Every structure is written in structure tokens, then in C-alpha cells.
Amino acid sequence: MDISFDKIIRSISLALDLSQASSIERESLSAEFKTSFSTSHKFSNHSKRVTYIALKIGKKFNLSDDSMKNLYIAALLHDIGAANSLNKSHTSASFIKEHCLNGEKLTRNLPIFSDISKIILNHHENFDGSGPFCAKGNDIPIESRIIHICDLIDMLYKENIPAYNQRTDICFSISSNSNTIFDSNIVDAFLSVCEKEIFWFDLENISFIDFILDSISPVIDATVNLEQFEQIAYILSKIIDNKSSFTAEHSRGISKLAYKVSKYVGYPEEKCVKMRIAGLLHDIGKLAIPSSILDKNGALTDDEFSIIKSHVYYTKIILDRIEDIKEISYWASSHHEKLNGRGYPMKLTADKISEECRIMCVCDIYQALIEDRPYRKGLSYEQSFKILNGMTSDGFICPKAVEQLKGALHS
After folding, report:
1. Residue 35 has what pLDDT?
2. By C-alpha distance, which of 246, 324, 316 is closest to 283?
3. pLDDT at site 33
4. pLDDT for the residue 92
5. Comparing C-alpha atoms, which of 91, 69, 70, 80 is closest to residue 46?
6. pLDDT below 50 — which residues of the chain?
């Protein structure tokens, strides 16, 4: 099974942008950026715009094909180490260093293009050596130097103001930090690129016109196999479970259960692995949900529950970007559907819910019941199955799937 690496990276980038947009804290620009120019930046489409600007600057430098590919992938993933705290990653000196280290650690484990980890580690280094790791000048990878300037250009950019009303201030703020925060050659390249109105029009429209980025992106024809994709899914599961203090290890717990039940049912090994991956990714849509709602220690309001329910919709949106994993996307995004049509997000009825989705649903409920939460201790096996059996009696979940889970746990 071959899975497009480019589509995987775009999917992860979408997840990061959704996570960034869900941040409810708004602070001023990073203290490292020595200017009085402040921002109300909300991080929506941040990685997409950073990548667009980076590629435009990279082309000015006539970077090699390999370097352009590394720049493209690193720009899309540059904030992967801060997916749950994007505001802090640009406003707190200690967190800037921490998210660079986290990003390096996560991307070091990519099955291919793992060399981008060094670029991500250094993407907040200042040209004069005043950055978090004190790297200086040409010791900083050129891709990192480019992403650094692009990152802060987008921090200055305000989506709610026409580009022609802010371009002068942005250019002034960037040029004022030439040869200190930024490499002067890269500043010059940016000033050349942004002279053309099309640059600013593209920034204004990149949120809904993907072909703007597609038209300048390098061709990434690499693919990964199912085993390698699972490595990536495992990386993402760490980010997902770190989103909420309530759910540490939740995705990996469901992944193990889904695989165990699939083996018990007698699925072929490849299908069992796909179910394991679906378990790892089933809650990736929670990256789009504000942590204040996920971590609420008490009953949710109707509005808050409506927002929570959207996470499976976002799971589908993110995973559907990877066209080669349609089954995994379907199983992962349908784990809250109920046989009586009262689930979400599509309110599917029993005849539309596959056996795999029924298994994923039961695994999700059981895992949630046995986990410790701040407001209760994890339930016992007996207590959990008492609740599951009650849900089958009420027509919510599949009794066969409950028995399959029980059998798998005893096998």
C-alpha cells in the first residue's frame, strides 16, 4: 500500500492550522522581535502562508531541488512542536525554545525527510546569535533562516485589514531588523518578492485557494507504506493526546484495543493494522477544539457540547486529504455514530454503520470508561461492561461489537 507523503504533510499542516485557529488566547508579538509593531494575529492558515512566503523567497535564492523540498516540508510542519499552544510558541521565550526542541524530536522520527528536524530546531534562531540556541549567521541552516523571517512576517499580517494598508508597516518592521534578527540577504529577497501586488493578493486569498500554494510547491512524489504511515500516525497521536490533560494515552489505548478486537474477529493482518492506525487518529479533529472546552472540569453547556461534537467532522476533513486511506478515515471519523441514528456528526442509522465503525465506537467508549479523569477514577472492567450493556439495551451501540471486545480482552 503506497500513501502519498505530500498529502500526508498537507493533512498534518491542515490539522496544525485548525489547532492554531482554536487558540483562544491572543497576545502581542514575540519579545524577540525588537519592534513596537504589535499584532492581533489569530494563527489561521499560519503554516500555509509561511510556506507560501518561504517558497517565494527560496526561489529567489535558486535553492537546489532537495533544499526546496526540505524548505516546503519544514515550513508546513515548523510549528508541529507547539500544536496545542501556538500563541505561547511565539510570545514566550522559554516556550519558543521548548517548541523548537519538541518539533525537532517529533520530526526526527519521520520515516522519510527526517533531516528537516534540524531545520525545525533552528527556525527561531536570530542571525546575530541572540536566539534560543545562540546559533549565528551561516551556522543556521538557510531553510531555517527563511522560515524564521516568514514566520514573523505572517505574525505581523492581519487577515482583517487589506494588504495595501499594512504592507508598508510590515516591510519596515522586517527591514529594521536586517542583519540582527534576520539575514540581510533574506530580507532583501523578501523586499524584492513583495514588491509585486500578486504577492499580497495571494496572501489575502490563500485561505481558500489551495492552488495558489500548489502552483509553486515542489513536486514530492515520495510515498510511504502502511508501516511507515503508522509511524507518522503514532507521532500525531502524541500531539492529539497532549491536547487535553484528560486524555493522555487515550488514542494509543484505543489503537491497541482496535487491533486486539480486529485480530480476535479474524481480519487479515493489513486490515488489523489499518484499524490500529484509525485508533491512533480517531481524535485528530480535537486539535480544532479549544482546550478550555476539552479540559472543562464539569458539565458542558449545550453550546460547548456542540463544539465538542465537531471534532469528528474535523477528523474526517483532515484525514480525507489523504486520498489513499479512505477506509481509515471512515472508521476513524465515525466512532460517535449510534445504531439508533442519534450519534454524530452524520446521524447514521444501523444499516449505514459498518462492523469496523461499530468496533471503533465500542473501543472508544470502553477506553474512556477505564481511564482516570480529574472528576473520577477509572471504572473497573465489570462497571464498564455494565454501562456498555446498558447502551446496547438502549439501542445505542452494537451488542455483537460489545461481545467481540469482551472476547478479545479475555483471549
Report:
1. 42
2. 316
3. 52
4. 63
5. 80
6. 24-32, 34-43, 87-89
Task: Fill in the amino acid letter for 147.
Answer: I
Q: What is the 3-state secondary structure (H, E, C) of the chain?
A: CCEEHHHHHHHHHHHHHHHHHCCCCCCCCCCCCCCCCCCCCCCCCHHHHHHHHHHHHHHHCCCCHHHHHHHHHHHHHCCHHHCCCHHHHHHCHHHHHHHHHHHHHHHHCCCCCCCHHHHHHCCCCCCCCCCCCCCCHHHCCHHHHHHHHHHHHHHHCCCCCCHHHCHHHHHHHHHCCECCCECHHHHHHHHHHCCCHHHHHHHHHCCCCHHHHHCCCCCCCCEECHHHHHHHHHHHHHHHHHCCCCCCCHHHHHHHHHHHHHHHHCCCHHHHHHHHHHHHHCCHHHHHCCHHHHCCCCCCCHHHHHHHHHHHHHHHHHHCCCHHHHHHHHHHHCCCCCCECCCCCCCCEHHHCCHHHHHHHHHHHHHHHHCCECCECCCCHHHHHHHHHHHHHCCCCCHHHHHHHHHHHHC
Burial bucket for residue 15 (CB in 10 Å: 0-12, 13-18, 19+)? buried
Residue holding cell 461481545?
403
Name residue 169's amino acid: D
pLDDT for position 40: 43
**Gyration radius from the chain CA atoms:** 23
Q: Compute the distance between CA of residue 178 and CA of residue 244 in angstroms, rounded to an integer.
A: 39
Q: Which residues pair with 178 in a beta bridge?
A: 182
> How far, in Å, CA of 319 to CA of 29, rounded?
32
Burial classification of residue 374, based on how many CB atoms lie within 10 Å of its CB (0-12 exposed, 13-18 middle, 19 or more buried): exposed
Cis peptide before 132 (omega within 30 of 0): no
Looking at residue 321, its pLDDT comes to 94
- What are the tens digits of pLDDT across the range 14-33? 998 888 776 644 333 444 45
Burial class of residue 132 (count of CB atoms within 10 Å of its CB; 0-12, 13-18, 19+): buried
